[in-house]
Structure to design on (340 residues):
């Protein structure tokens, strides 16, 4: 009888990386608050193959390709391994993922990438830091240096190590200088814009929660042959702060706030109105989310498939009928079409 090579597979000492995204999202929020929402930060997966918004708004996107080159499951050959079929089983290979993430700070005009990391479900993880920052803090990173990679790449073995490195990185003099320069130039650009004729800066602005909301709103505006400005706050709890900041920049603008109820319409309205005031601007609370409003089942859809679904749905949508059926939809359409 051979040895059990599996060992104790139910006992693992590997520390999970689950906390990284929450930590980074909090740091994004702190930077936004500290700069009065003029310098922002984003931490997310790098995707060089598709641009989320362009995949929706690209005029030549032929959604009929959804039905082209499709192989229906009934025609596919069934695979067996021994007597066990693989049919209707989800491939678990992707459970141990390896995704490349980046952390950037940005304004309307400028961007600066602080680091990239290869995120896997468990430590260790590999981080590649901006070369200038790395050279400044390298003396603090001796224990983490990755000897097999380029000089500004390090290996992190736990969440506590990640926090130590992140703190050292964010407090670096280059990072502080870049943020202050971004803030200064953003304020200079704002001052110049306020100096223009008031008719040039009159805008209609929709403040919403996130990228998927922007996609739907921009695609809807395109169907209505209108151009609108949308701003994604990055979460329901950030919408009031973003609204207040943008309202100061565009005093002559007309605003619409669009947020999802997520099953709690009363609570959501109470939160938003409590933060910005009941009569400050028009507020649309969608039940439950913006995809539901269009009858799109977004569960388990990739970003690109969701974008295609939005295009297909809006292409065949009867806007007038939908306005009568859904009050939230009517308010959004009326705002987009309203002359201002």
């Amino acid at each position: 009888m051979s040895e059990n090579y599996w060992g104790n597979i139910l006992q693992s000492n590997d520390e999970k990386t689950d906390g990284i995204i929450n930590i980074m999202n909090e740091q994004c929020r702190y930077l936004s608050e500290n700069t009065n929402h003029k310098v922002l930060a984003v931490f997310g997966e790098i995707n060089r193959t598709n641009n989320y918004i362009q995949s929706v708004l690209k005029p030549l996107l032929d959604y009929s390709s959804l039905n082209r080159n499709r192989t229906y499951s009934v025609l596919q050959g069934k695979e067996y391994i021994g007597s066990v079929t693989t049919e209707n089983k989800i491939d678990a290979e992707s459970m141990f993922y390896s995704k490349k993430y980046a952390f950037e700070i940005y304004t309307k005009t400028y961007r600066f990438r602080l680091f990239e990391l290869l995120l896997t479900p468990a430590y260790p993880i590999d981080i590649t830091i901006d070369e200038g920052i790395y050279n400044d803090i390298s003396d603090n990173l001796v224990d983490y240096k990755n000897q097999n990679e380029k000089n500004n790449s390090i290996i992190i073995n736990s969440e506590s190590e990640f926090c130590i490195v992140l703190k050292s990185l964010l407090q670096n003099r280059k990072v502080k200088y870049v943020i202050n320069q971004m803030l200064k130039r953003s304020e200079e650009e704002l001052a110049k814009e306020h100096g223009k004729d008031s008719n040039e800066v009159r805008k209609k602005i929709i403040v919403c929660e996130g990228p998927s909301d922007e996609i739907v709103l921009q695609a809807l505006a395109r169907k209505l042959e209108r151009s609108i400005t949308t701003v994604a706050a990055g979460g329901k709890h950030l919408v009031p702060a973003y609204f207040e900041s943008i309202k100061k920049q565009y005093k002559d603008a007309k605003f619409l706030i669009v947020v999802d109820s997520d099953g709690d319409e009363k609570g959501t309205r109470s939160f938003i109105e409590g933060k910005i005031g009941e009569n400050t601007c028009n507020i649309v609370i969608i039940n439950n989310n913006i995809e539901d409003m269009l009858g799109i089942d977004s569960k388990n859809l990739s970003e690109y498939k969701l974008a295609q679904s939005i295009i297909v749905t809006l292409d065949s949508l009867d806007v007038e009928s939908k306005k009568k059926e859904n009050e939230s939809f009517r308010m959004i359409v009326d705002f987009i079409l309203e002359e201002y």
